[in-house]
Amino acid sequence: MSAAIGYKLLAIMLIVGFGYLVGRLRWLGSAEAEPARVLSNAAFFMFAPALFFRTTARLDLAQLPWPMIAAFFVPVVALMGLNYAAQRWRRAERGLPAAAPAVRAITVAFGNSLQIGIPIAAGVFGETGLGLHLALVSVHALVLLLVATTLVELDLARDQARGAQRIGSLGAVLRATLRNTIIHPVVLPVLAGMAWQATGVPLPGPVDEVLQLLGTAVVPLCLTLIGMSLAYLGFPRSLRGALGLTLLKLVVQPALVWAVAWWVFGLRGLPLQVVVMLAALPSGTNALMFAQRYRAQEAETTAVNVISTLAFVATAPVWLWLLTVFSSVDGPALAS
């Protein structure tokens, strides 16, 4: 990897370290006051909705590279679903909360497409590759968080119905799921943004400026939250689960995306390289925000964020080397 990408990874870890220092020294209060959760709620209910609405309202659906989008999201969502199903099957025997399967699923699926993904795309693939990467990133959070939100709200509604001894009331479960999925700080801004985009009216300048300023707070806040959560919660007693999720994220997911993109969608050259590296990115900070929102697997998700980011230093060169080797048959070589 280039020095610029290395510096970006170092900057991310330093911000996480700063968050750890803030939590360790209790600058924002004791663990009982839950300052990390307060900041997480601010990100989830204030800053992230502004980002999602602005992104969706400005999205030009006609210009998106749909074959690339399908080649990435079909295998990623499929792996997400398989992971979710496996976790649901094992949840009862492990005594995990209802939201745990969806949290683990989004932790594996969601990559750090901004802080790490953009420098990788720009530094390795050049301007053309960066453009393709940004096209995928424009719908990355929207698709994966929508899927995860639907799954977790379905589980919570089912769990609530079971607690109220209404196990057979499928209609009640579906109604609760639909209501909680739509009236949600992720989904509602997306739907509102789509409705605005459909009107063809550009966002007024002052409104766009406000949304942009609010949205820029998401990245540094979430990185700081990783460190604070590590200070308050620590690593889980057993790292087996975190290491397993990290393996799925850094090895299994990019391999699956490569196979599906090549054999099913016929991607070659630069488009193939971009989707594989997007799939190979470490776990993104939105996964921790999601875990804290539903109070499930917070320590484990924090561990996956830290471990996968550190391990990416070793796995990224391997994927880039494999892509370079196959570039002679894929199409154009990687940008220098």
Task: Please explain how this structure is put together.
With 336 residues, this protein is mostly helical. It has 13 helices and no strands. It has helices spanning 3-24, 35-57, 66-94, 100-109, 117-163, 170-182, 187-199, 205-215, 218-233, 240-263, 269-279, 285-294, 298-330. Helix 10 packs antiparallel against helix 11. It is globular and about 55 Å long. The chain starts with a helix and ends in a 6-residue tail after the last helix.
Number of contiguous helices: 13
The total count of strands amounts to 0
Q: Output the CATH topology.
A: Na+/H+ antiporter like fold
Weakly predicted, low-confidence segments: none
Search tags:
336 residues, Na+/H+ antiporter like fold, 78% helix, globular
